[in-house]
Amino acid sequence: MNPGQTHPLSFDNTKYAFAYKSEKELKKANWLFSVMGNPFLVNLGVKLTPLAIKWRIPFTKTILRKTIFKQFVGGESLEKTKPVASLLGEYGVKVILDYGVEGGEGETAFDEASKEFIKVIKYASQQNNIPFISIKITGIGRFSLLEKIDSLMSQFSGESIISDYENAIAKIDGGEKSELNKVEQRLMAICETAHLNKIGVLIDAEESWIQHPVDALCMIMMKKFNQNKCCIFNTIQLYRHDRFSFLKKSHLLAQKENFVLGAKLVRGAYMEKERARATEKNYLSPIQTDKKNTDSDYNNAVAFCLENIKSISMIVASHNEYSNLQTTILMQSHNIPFNHPHIHFSQLYGMSDNITFNLAKAGCSVSKYLPFGPIEDVVPYLMRRARENSSVAGQTGRELSLIMQELKRRANSKA
Description:
This protein has 18 helices and eight strands. By secondary structure, it is α/β, with parallel strands linked by helices. It has a domain at 104-317: TIM Barrel. Strands 1-2-3-4-5-6-7-8 form an eight-stranded parallel β-barrel, surrounded by eight helices. The longest helix has 23 residues, at 174-196. It is globular and about 70 Å long.
């Protein structure tokens, strides 16, 4: 262990994992994960829930509010996240706020989303437990515009993501340049507000066919705002076979331009969509050929960041127990303290509490990713969580076994 660290790290300690939950809440979570372990029920729910919301079928929102919404979402408004954030804070767990509204289109919607992100940043700056917020570029700009720029960028060398972006812009028409300028202005306003208020901005990864301009915009913002301390983070999806090399290339650019690289490391979120599009359009899929390669690149990316920890600020955003544990082992071998300012861990709210709360207990900087928003707006997010828990091998079983273990431990302690 590092000097002064005496707590042995284990993800099997359910007492720490669920200390923040009452017995009633644990039993409700046990029931919910049991349901999500049934693929038939999940598929049915994923198809029917959006329709029930759209058709305003009575009690739909009430049922969601008391079940899956409560498990995975912080609240229906920014203010309603406060009790959840405060409770997590009591156990040393921080919060990443995510305005969970998806799918807005048009300049008015993009302007409103930008204002909401700025509002969230200002709110976070007044709390002592919210170091980051999460945003999507597609929340403030048109998908098809980003897609066109991505296509143009792919025609250039790839040596410099920023110069490729600038070369692509030179090829679009005046109206598109004006539209893109507004996207850049919105992002600049968000990042500038975050920098002034000392809040980190995590820019989400998107589909591979719009990722080039997203990467370029991330780099431009990092160059401006990450000079002394990391404020802006790009999200690196390691289920893509090209992203570990992109991480290393990004680090070279950061060193050349003298800024701290912000890297949020994830495995990925669009696998089925990516493979289907590659097949349809007859190009090589960007997705790794198997999970083993994904895991290898993920763990290699963590090791690379730790080897360059002075110039990279990383967020290990993973539900994989091995990756989290291996990170702490590597930190110990490099004599890096668990509370190093350039190392943060994160898991989704409502999942993998055994990882989050045991990391916090060991003294690591760790957070829960906490979405919020009106029920009808966060339904897409909730459906992804239901589908993910149903499809990820062993995820639901692991959650259930830990909950049942804790319920048994509590029953025995009363005996």
